């Protein structure tokens, strides 16, 4: 399966129509390159705040509340593009208000056959906690795309091995990571997390990122990192684990994932099979006298 992970070029847009045109152009490019699945980055919906007044878009609480007016348009847009392009679209994340007034960082996915699902972010960053607006998700899920079982870990979630391990044990062989990081250190943490999840689960991992600057946005002001697609570091696979990675000016990292070959390649190490319950741990660790 050929997949594409986006290094999403942020711009100030004046309307939802401009946003929709941008999505269509980007996703058409991915499909023209042969991709059957396209991954967009975390916090993608916040780019829509560019259509708000200067005061409103600079206020995270006000902008999140106003963005809810576009939720149905958002769902309709990606459902239509998935159908028209015959493409699975993992649409980054939309900060969705719940019945309790709190928000979830939700990653929606759309199948070309009309299916729609989502994965909420489970682990909140210090920034998200400090806003007092966002609450963590509660459910971990897997989903089937083009006959392949996949899972989603929203940005920081990819840095935690046990939830991803549970998704792997539920059959996932591809982990999709929509991310947004504002420092090189943050981008490195997500990258290292993705490489580690690929290694320990013997699975493919794709990461999308936001790129550029939106000085008016409390969440998207500065952005770091490159989109990439990773594999385990083993026989017949890249020694550094990198199947594809964007460079400045590129919008998509694209790679062909050979699931059957990954399953049958001889393994130098087999972390996924050698994973075992931790032995009892004692304080001190020394031998008895």
Outline the biggest β-sheet: 13 strands, mixed
H/E element string?
EHEHHHEEEEHEEHEHEEEEHH
Q: What's the number of extended β-strand segments?
A: 13
* Percent of residues in beta strands: 15-25%
- Rg measurement, Å: 19 Å
Q: State the helicity in percent bands.
A: 25-40%
Number of helices: 9
Tell me, what is the CATH class? Answer: Alpha Beta
Overall number of structural domains: 1
Low-pLDDT runs:
none
Task: Determine the mean pLDDT.
Answer: 94
Under CATH, the homologous superfamily reads: Carbon-nitrogen hydrolase
Structural class designation: alpha/beta
Overall geometry comes to: globular
The third-level CATH topology is: Nitrilase/N-carbamoyl-D-aminoacid amidohydrolase
Could you give the distance between the termini?
59 Å
- The assigned CATH architecture is 4-Layer Sandwich
Helices and strands in order:
Elements: E1 2-9, H1 16-32, E2 37-40, H2 54-57, H3 60-67, H4 71-85, E3 88-91, E4 94-97, E5 103-110, E6 116-120, H5 126-131, E7 142-145, E8 148-152, H6 161-169, E9 174-178, H7 184-201, E10 204-211, E11 228-230, E12 242-245, E13 252-256, H8 259-264, H9 271-274
Parallel strand pairs: 1-2, 1-10, 2-3, 8-9, 9-10
Antiparallel strand pairs: 1-13, 3-5, 4-5, 5-6, 7-8, 10-11, 11-12
Helix pairs in contact: 1-4, 6-7
């Amino acid at each position: 399966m050929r997949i594409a992970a986006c290094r999403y070029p942020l711009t100030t847009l004046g309307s939802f129509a401009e946003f929709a045109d941008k999505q269509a152009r980007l996703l058409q490019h991915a499909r023209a390159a042969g991709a059957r699945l396209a991954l967009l980055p975390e916090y993608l919906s916040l780019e829509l705040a560019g259509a708000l007044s200067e005061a409103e878009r600079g206020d995270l609480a006000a902008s999140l509340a106003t963005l809810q007016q576009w939720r149905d348009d958002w769902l309709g847009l990606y459902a239509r593009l998935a159908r028209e392009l015959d493409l699975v679209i993992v649409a980054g994340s939309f900060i969705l208000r719940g019945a309790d007034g709190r928000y979830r960082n939700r990653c929606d996915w759309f199948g070309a056959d009309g299916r729609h699902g989502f994965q909420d972010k489970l682990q909140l960053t210090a920034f998200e906690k400090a806003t007092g607006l966002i609450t963590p998700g509660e459910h971990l899920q897997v989903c089937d795309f083009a006959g392949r079982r996949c899972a989603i870990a929203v940005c920081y979630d990819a840095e935690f091995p046990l939830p991803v391990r549970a998704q792997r044990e539920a059959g996932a062989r591809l982990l999709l990571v929509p991310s947004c990081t504002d420092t090189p250190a943050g981008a490195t943490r997500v990258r290292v997390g993705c490489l580690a999840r690929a290694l320990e689960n013997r699975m493919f991992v794709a990461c999308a990122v936001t790129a550029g600057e939106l000085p008016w946005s409390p969440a998207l002001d500065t952005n770091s990192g490159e989109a990439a697609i990773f594999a385990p570091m083993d026989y017949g696979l890249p020694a550094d684990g990198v199947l594809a990675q964007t460079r400045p000016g590129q919008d998509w990292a694209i790679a062909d994932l050979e699931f059957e070959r990954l399953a049958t390649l001889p393994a130098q190490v087999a972390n996924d099979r050698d994973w075992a319950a931790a032995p009892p741990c004692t304080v001190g660790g020394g031998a008895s006298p």
